[in-house]
TrEMBL record:
The lineage of its organism: Eukaryota, Viridiplantae, Streptophyta, Embryophyta, Tracheophyta. InterPro entries: Isochorismatase-like_dom, Isochorismatase-like_hydrls, Isochorismatase-like_sf. It comes from Theobroma cacao. One of its GO terms (biological process) is NAD+ metabolic process. This is Nicotinamidase 2. The keyword Hydrolase applies. Pfam families: Isochorismatase (PF00857).
Length: 206
């Protein structure tokens, strides 16, 4: 059974500890690393990611897209050693956003990063604060690496964090669910497409 099919029958409710809806007036959506390099993981959640983006657009919630890429060995950090230099290099097809996501991203909404956290060595925090953002909704890939690291750092920086259960993905279900359990315990409110629709607009997706 694939991770995608497993997720369909796996409810995040078993991990949910606290309930809250995002405030559209103070929220931003973070779409993490939905790039060609990660297409095998990203494609199964593509519809949910697009649904989440569209819901946030409808609610006038700002959306930011991260694009992980490396330009020279100087920015590899520990990732070069850890992944045997199997990295995403700027200017390659792998580094580009998946076409269906790329067409939704405006140029001033794309944040380039070179490590797991979308906050490190980027202007993301300033961009959020400039828009009066106090809450972030995290989606994208990989659940347990860049999504989780970004969510944890957002929490430490004082942002209220919402973590998508059905618009995030990683290499296997066990790692995905481990992150959901960790997020719910100490860092984030869990949300999915239906819950987000209901929380923002008062009705569910049919």
């Amino acid at each position: 059974m694939s991770m995608a099919s497993s997720l369909k029958c796996s409810s995040y409710k078993k991990y949910e500890i606290r309930k809250r809806d995002p405030n559209p007036k103070t929220s931003a959506l973070l779409v993490i690393d939905m790039q060609n390099y990660f297409s095998s993981m990203a494609k199964p959640i593509l519809n949910n990611a697009i649904t989440t983006i569209n819901l946030c657009r409808q609610a006038s919630i700002p959306v930011f897209f991260t694009r992980h890429c490396h330009k020279s060995p100087a920015d590899y950090g520990m990732l070069g050693e850890w992944w045997d230099n199997d990295l995403i290099f700027d200017g390659t097809v792998d580094s580009e956003l998946i076409p269906e996501i790329g067409q939704l991203a405006r140029a001033n909404e794309v944040v380039e990063k070179n490590t797991y956290s979308a906050f490190q060595n980027t202007r993301l925090q300033d961009m959020l604060l400039e828009k009066g953002v106090e809450e972030v909704i995290v989606t994208g890939v990989m659940t347990n690496l860049c999504c989780e690291t970004t969510a944890r750092e957002a929490f430490v920086k004082g942002f209220r964090v919402f973590f998508s259960t059905d618009a995030t993905a990683t290499s296997d279900l066990e790692l995905h669910e481990a992150t959901l359990k960790n997020m719910a315990y100490g860092f984030a409110y869990l949300v999915d497409c239906k819950g987000l629709q209901q929380g923002l607009f008062g009705n569910e997706i049919n």
